[in-house]
Amino acid sequence: MNIRIELLNHYPWLPSLKDHYPDLKTEVFIKELFKKYPKEEIHERILRIFKAAFQNLEQVPKYESDELNIYLYLMLKILLYVLDNKSITNRIANLYSKINYAELIQENDANIDAICEDLDLEVLYYEHPITYGAHITKNQTERLQTNFRIHFIDYLKLAANLRDDYRKLINNPLTEGYVFIQKRSLIRLIQEFVRVKVLPKESDDKATLTAYREKYFNTEEFKEIYDKIIEEWKEKKEDFEFKEFKFSKGSDLSDSFPPCLKEILQKAQDGVNLTHNERLFLVFLLHALEYPVDKIVDIFSALPDFNREKTLYQVNFALEKKYTPHKCDTLKSLNFCMAEKYKDELCLNGYYSRKTDEQKKISHPLFYIQIKQYRMSRPQNIPNTQAGNENE
Ligand code: SF4
Prior knowledge:
By secondary structure, the protein is of the alpha+beta class. Helices cover 54% and strands 9% of the residues. It folds into three domains: 5-104 and 203-237, no CATH class; 109-197, no CATH class; 239-392.
């Protein structure tokens, strides 16, 4: 199928790209791109995507769906391949799929149908909504209607990575092999397709990767944007470096826990019902420390609404999604920061960074743990020259 070019500008991952751009060969693509569009514009738009992903934003400021967007999508894929960094790749794939979700949700039904057809999905589209059931409450009966049905094989393929209970095939109305599906849910499935599509294929073939990287570096403008991304990542990755910090079996990190974490753990231990955000904070942080799943589940066991099976599912789900734990700024905005309450010297005064030769604030609870662990591992007889002035 040959989809309209306007739709392709928005969704360059559609298979029809090949029909509209049969001559797009990656070997010459990069050089042609920089001949066709100003370098500054390409760099700015690519960098905006990376910066947004590194800041964990949900959308990209000033995102445009024009013809250049098609080239930028391809360039993004090449960059992710040669960057060869899982942390960056996952962030970009998540963000890119969210941008596309936001755009798709604005499309009319006929366009969604055309997109499904281009993706070779067996989707039935009804111009007038069809009724497939009713939701009966005390005094009201709500008719369940939709304009879409999707073949269950395609449904299963697209929903394979989405583990919410309500998405399971058994929880969805199905007749004659087709699932009745709401437009929003259908678009959520397409979003997942996009996320996977952006991820480069995993390969251990580093020699080929190096050869490709060298080849692309022959285009100066490409090398420039690559370097800018690396520079940007170096600045931001400090926030993510904690991922190298591992929980080893039998070790007790509790002495190194920051006040915000201690407070919520204490609440859980006391059987206080934790809020949704408190639960997320705990789970994301403990996953980052590679705490065993059963230990995390046990922490919740004192809570009034504890259900082991449900908690186990949610903890595993968060693990699989690799959610990033909250930073101090976020925790402060949620009123979770307990630096003042605990009068914690490290949280209140920060630490000395030898790398940048300056006093730095604690920006992440995982840094706090890292620094505490470092301090505890140093020989006792090396005194600090100043309070809080160390060579972390
Ligand atoms: S400064 Fe950060 S680590 Fe310390 S208590 Fe506040 S949020 Fe937690």
